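Much of what follows relies on a compact textual record of a protein's fold. The record below shows the convention in full:
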Amino acid sequence: MGRSPHFHFMIVYPLACDAGHEFEGWFASAEACEQQAEAGQIQCPSCSSAEVRKLLAAPHVHTSFGEAAQARRPDDALRPRAIAALRKFILANTDDVGRKFAEVARRIHYEEEEARNIRGVVTPDEAQELSEEGVETLTLPPEVIPPGEMH
């Protein structure tokens, strides 16, 4: 059993679909990008094509939503579609464990429960404790999964 695939940071790669639309993809690793592309799990936010490839450019690591990150975010016209696509992907590919997130994440991390993608809610203290234990997580901004959609 592996660790839960939730991460503290994301690597941002420039991508393009077979129709030539360019966009960014956020991934936990280069391997995750390749695996998702090969499995057809990445879709173009403009035309929904799953024929996606990485463009030649240096990836960057996204760690916050401050001014520097804002300069790299997708064009404002694409942003709502990119967020909607990310929301759809997360909701379709994760189990909502709500307030039990810290408990379930620990069980997965310590291989007491089968590894799977989960989403839920933690307090700042719980997030810090998970980090100190080496349980990798990703905090999403409320615009991706609004609090009303979490249980």
Remarks:
- Strands lie at 10-17, 22-27, 52-54, 60-62, 95-98, 118-120.
